[in-house]
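DUF962 domain-containing protein structure dump, as promised
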Amino acid sequence: MNFRSLDELWAFYMSQHSKPSTRRWHFAGTLTALLILISSIIFAWWVIFFVPIFGYGLAWYSHFFVEGNVPATFGHPIWSLMCDFKMFGLMLTGRMDREIKRLGKRPVLQVF
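structure tokens r here:
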């Protein structure tokens, strides 16, 4: 799919993250990647190698085994990373449900 703007991709991106557990896996991956990045700056530079492994690994796990789709990273790597940070920020500030409703999506009820 071709998108002309980040806003167009954002609506698609959210449709690919419809399950709360998918978003939680993304949150965990982004948080872990950020903590590893900080650790690599403070303690040892070679630890930076683990940033994409944990960041993408946890997110991709959620797409393949929870959501059942292909990560947007494969088609739009930079924009999907930007969308991931936006989703992370919305979740961190408790505004994710409001954004889902704004986009006309209903949260999917799920145990995990």
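Residues 107-112 have pLDDT under 50 and may be disordered.
lmk if u need the other ones
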